[in-house]
């Protein structure tokens, strides 16, 4: 039965090639809009938790007033070392974070770069090229530079690879770039450096009080129960700190960007608008198609074809449009993802899950439009036509 209906639906669409082209272009446009909005939204979340993902530990200690990595609030490192005395805890590592003025050695302009400080004797951050360069950070006024930083910080990567070293200023202090690593940018951070805890405190000077840290990483003994250790720490540590699993730490960061800033809402709204725009375009095409062929549909009714048969034809038209329109939308989005990634350095990539989700949304969008357009078809009466 379905096989006999598909050619009719296809012939209906392909007869008016210009109209079909407009419908495919409209669906592709809606898909591109949804792909971009959802892709950038996901890049927002992925970029925000890149540092979280790299941490070598199961539990994180932060201030009770902590909101996100760009909304810093320090607490006493005594809390972290208190945690070291609890059963199941193997080691603790304080982490220092702050934005520091960085002088571009190419044009002498100053930009704020995100500095990450920790003890180079400890394996805290698992990132490419960090571990092999930690020995260099034991020297005074040395940093590692993020390959994924934006271009406003200068041609550091190319200079380092040519000269095996770069000299510039951080907070009006001469420093040496002694290695490269890769972390990447986010909506709140345009570039990163890694340095030792001693260098970090020296660079910040009077702006940073000793004994205050931004968060602490807790590594557990092999076989220790993460949930039990977290519950024990929460029950015994003062309430001026939060005890979070690594997953909770990441979830809190994503929640901050999704609910406490307009960015997450904006991209979600953009995806919804794309869905609505596509639905309206497909509805207009299908409604016009039904209206133009109303005498033919009435004739089919007059010779015995049921409403259900004709309704399935319109529904199949919608599905054909969804399938064909998705292909150029997907291809264009791939290209735009690449261009956006090159321009912004954000981690925006096409995923199988997102492609499937957008295809389902496209099918749903066209199906809803078909259901609305079917109202016109059901009203077709052979007596009115003839």
Would you write up a description of this structure?
- The longest helix has 38 residues, at 307-344.
- The protein folds into two domains: 2-48 and 262-385, no CATH class; 65-238, no CATH class.
- 54% of the residues lie in helices and 18% in strands.
- The chain has helices spanning 2-15, 17-48, 50-54, 77-83, 156-163, 197-204, 226-236, 246-259, 262-292, 294-302, 307-344, 352-378, 382-385, and strands spanning 59-63, 75-76, 89-103, 110-118, 142-146, 166-170, 173-181, 192-196, 212-213, 215-220, 241-245.
- The chain has a nine-stranded mixed β-sheet. It has a two-stranded antiparallel sheet with strand order 2-9.
- The chain is elongated.
- It is built from 13 helices and eleven strands.
- By secondary structure, the protein is an alpha+beta fold.
- A hairpin with a 6-residue loop joins strand 3 (89-103) and strand 4 (110-118).
State the separation between the terminal residues, measured CA to CA. 28 Å
Low-confidence stretches: 1-5
Q: Helical stretch count?
A: 13
| Biggest β-sheet description | 9 strands, mixed
Which strand order do you get reading across the main beta sheet?
A: 6-7-5-8-4-3-10-1-11
Rough outline? elongated
- The proportion of residues in beta strands is 15-25%
What's the SSE pattern? HHHEEHEEEHEEEHEEHEHHHHHH
DSSP strand count: 11
Tell me the number of structural domains.
2
Membrane topology: Multi-pass membrane protein
Protein name: FtsX-like permease family protein
Transmembrane segments: 21-40, 263-287, 308-332, 355-374
Keywords: Cell membrane, Membrane, Transmembrane, Transmembrane helix, Transport
């Amino acid at each position: 039965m379905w096989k006999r209906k598909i050619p009719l639906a296809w012939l209906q669409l392909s007869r008016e090639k210009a109209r079909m082209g407009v419908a495919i272009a409209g669906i592709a446009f809606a898909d591109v809009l949804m792909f971009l909005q959802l892709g950038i939204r996901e890049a927002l979340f992925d970029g925000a938790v890149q540092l979280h993902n790299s941490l070598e530990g199961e539990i994180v200690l932060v201030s009770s007033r902590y909101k996100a990595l760009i909304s810093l609030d320090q607490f006493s490192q005594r809390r972290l070392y208190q945690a070291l005395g609890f059963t199941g805890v193997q080691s603790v590592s304080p982490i220092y974070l702050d934005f520091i003025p960085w002088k571009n050695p190419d044009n002498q302009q100053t930009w704020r770069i995100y500095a990450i400080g920790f003890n180079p004797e400890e394996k805290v951050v698992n990132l490419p090229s960090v571990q092999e360069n930690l020995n260099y950070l034991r020297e005074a006024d040395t940093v590692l530079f993020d390959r994924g930083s934006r271009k406003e910080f200068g041609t550091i990567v190319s200079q380092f690879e040519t000269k095996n070293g770069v000299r510039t200023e951080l907070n009006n202090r001469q420093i040496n770039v002694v290695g490269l690593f890769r972390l990447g940018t986010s909506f709140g951070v345009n570039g990163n450096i890694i340095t030792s805890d001693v260098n970090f405190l020296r660079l910040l000077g009077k702006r940073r009080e000793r004994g205050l840290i931004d968060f602490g990483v807790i590594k557990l003994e092999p076989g220790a129960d993460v949930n039990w250790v977290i519950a024990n720490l929460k029950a015994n540590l003062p309430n001026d700190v939060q005890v979070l699993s690594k997953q909770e730490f990441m979830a809190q960061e994503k929640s901050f960007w999704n609910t406490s800033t307009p960015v997450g809402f904006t991209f979600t709204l953009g995806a919804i608008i794309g869905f609505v725009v596509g639905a309206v375009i497909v509805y207009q095409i299908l409604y016009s198609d039904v209206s133009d062929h109303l005498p033919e549909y009435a004739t089919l009714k007059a010779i015995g074809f049921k409403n259900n048969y004709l309704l399935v034809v319109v529904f199949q038209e919608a599905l054909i449009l969804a399938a064909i329109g998705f292909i150029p939308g997907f291809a264009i989005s791939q290209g735009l993802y690449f261009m956006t990634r090159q321009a912004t350095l954000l981690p925006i990539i096409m995923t199988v899950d997102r492609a499937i989700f957008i295809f389902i949304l496209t099918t749903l969008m066209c199906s809803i439009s078909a259901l609305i357009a079917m109202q016109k078809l059901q009203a077709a009466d052979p007596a009115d036509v003839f």
